[in-house]
Design a protein that fits this description.
alpha+beta, 4-stranded antiparallel sheet, 10 helices, binds flavin mononucleotide
Length: 257
């Protein structure tokens, strides 16, 4: 009873919640469906603002956003992708390599905007609240910004594709990124003809979504919850929640919440 009233006090309205889950379950990594329509400045500004409101260790806000629209820069980036992708393909064998070569894994030239999201590891000096014992936390904070951007873009009808098959040193050179700054994400962004229902790697048979319940451990790594009263009911709730996400990946949040 008490938690119900706290939920109505602190939670979102059903419509707000539905909107958030809708963005989460309908977000896709987009490679091939970009259309050339320009992204209006105010829309791009909103998704960048969403990124900037991400959590960050010690409120460090270590990110910067390089907005790339120059076709010559995109062309050079695409050249590097082509080289890196050939190296990557060679790491897989036989059938897997043939399947890899059929995948489209970037939309660098087609997407009207490319964004490089970086992490300045020295933004607030060497000692950062919260980063004292786990130095990678500023990098993780930057990834939080990317995810905020990705979800906000989906809500705006913009596709985003993350391209990581690039040589980091070449990426740094091409964009004149200083030594203390790490390029975390290279993103392609733009309006799309459509969003796919499922991850492309899933529909291509590359890899399936794992059952969430197999990824939950109780009280210790590998703990099956036999000593915990709540384990069985949480497991059941997780199964029901996963079943509420429809086959095609489009959820009906209202029915589940
Ligand atoms: C850190 C990171 C790097 C990724 N790099 C690439 C990439 O280089 N090329 C690509 O096509 N997709 C890339 N992806 C997208 C994943 O393949 C995609 O998120 C995954 O297959 C699930 O699909 P979905 O995002 O549409 O749900 C990357 C995703 C993440 C989070």
């Amino acid at each position: 009873m008490e938690s119900e009233s706290l939920r109505s006090q602190n939670g979102f309205t059903p419509e707000q919640r539905a909107g958030l889950y809708h963005a989460i379950f309908n977000r896709r990594d987009v490679r091939g469906q970009f259309v050339p329509d320009p992204v209006p400045d105010e829309v791009l500004a909103r998704v960048l603002t969403a990124a900037h409101f991400a959590p960050s260790v010690g409120f460090m806000q270590p990110w910067s956003f390089l907005v790339i629209t120059d076709p010559a820069v995109k062309a050079r980036m695409h050249e590097d992708f082509t080289a890196a992708n050939a190296e990557a393909a060679a790491l897989f064998e036989d059938e897997r390599q043939a399947a890899y070569r059929r995948l489209k894994l970037e939309g660098i030239r087609e997407a009207p905007v490319n964004l490089c999201v970086t992490c300045d590891r020295d933004r607030c000096g060497p000692v950062v609240l919260g980063r004292t014992h786990m130095p990678a936390m500023d990098l993780y904070s930057t990834v939080c910004a990317v995810q905020n951007l990705w979800l906000a873009a989906r809500a705006e009808g913009l596709g985003v594709g993350w391209v990581s098959i690039l040589h980091p040193d070449r990426l740094r050179d091409l964009l004149a990124i200083p030594e203390r700054v790490v390029p975390v994400a290279y993103l392609c962004l733009g309006y799309v003809s459509h969003f796919k229902d499922r991850p492309e790697l899933e529909s291509a048979g590359w890899r399936a979504r794992l059952p969430l319940e197999d990824l939950i451990h109780f009280d210790r790594w590998g703990g099956d919850g036999s000593g915990s009263d709540g384990a069985a009911s949480l497991r059941e709730a997780v199964r029901a929640s996963m079943a509420g996400v429809r086959e095609d990946g489009i959820s009906e949040p209202e029915g589940r919440l």
